[in-house]
Amino acid sequence: MPPSLTTSAAGRTYDFSHVVGGRQITGVVNMAFGENDDVYVTKKALAFFDVELLKIGKEPGDEEVIQSFRAKDFDLFENSWPSCVAVGPNLDVYVTDELRHLIMVFDHDGNFIRNIGEHGDQPGQFDRPSGIVFANDGSLYVSDTKNHRIQHLTTTGEVITTFGEPGTNKGQFNSPWGIDLDAAQNVLVADHVNNRIQKFDSTGNYISAIETPGSGAGELNHPSDVTTDPDGNIYICDWANNRVQVFDESENYVLQMGGSAVELSKWQKRYIQGNPDVYKARRRVDTLDPETGFALPTGVEFDTRTNRLFVVDSQRWRIQIFNKLEDYAEPQFNI
Prior knowledge:
Helix content: under 10%
Strand order of the largest sheet: 1-2-25-24-23
Largest sheet: 5 strands, antiparallel
Number of domains: 1
CATH class: Mainly Beta
CATH topology: Neuraminidase
Strand content: 35-45%
Radius of gyration: 19 Å
């Protein structure tokens, strides 16, 4: 069954815009917004790991690769496994490195500045760090995944506080991954293996959770990322259910999206048109509907500047983009 291009519920409407992707962002895992149309992505696939700066405009086809960080320092990425990315107040780019258990810091053009942290379980040390996000005061929160905790740091790596420990109770974690802050600077964490999103205040005190496991509406299966918008809506990458779910500011379920990529990206069109065998094979399938949906989405970000939702569709090497429409009215037809 073809996907819905416009999804509405409870006064919220999301309209599919377009998709960005292809071999230019092979293995895309995570993303962060920079200045204006700048988008930074982490890539890890086919033993070719990188961070890239893209330009993504409002219109389909208005995207380009600006800079590969790996191209500036090949040796730096030779033993690296970049996971998640965040842009700091001065536009420096912070990238968690799961393989080397640290945070790499670059300027906005991809020039390496320094590393933060090392392998270990003490404050300021990491074991496969992943999600990373900046607070309004310029400090950052990091998902210290295999230490099953969150670390709150200054931009130079000094520890402000840590919270969490292994377990399934409130305030405990099992492999936390994606992380974000809401408008009140509460910390939302995708508690991946515990199949839930936990919310804490800025100092790490537990507040609440979205925590029903399963595949039904409002249920979660290994969530990978979480973000919010200025209206307080909560967006969850429901990883193993291949969807994004939307909850309101009170954590009530609103709707879900399974992906709507009915058109190929600019880069993917070029690849297919330049490879006759791929073109023929794609034309022979019974239906193209499966390629429209998400496949293990790993990142979700809301762009407040353009009122758009970006979803990192990792297994299909692309980002699906949705416009959040205001004052949307259902069309009325007289027959």
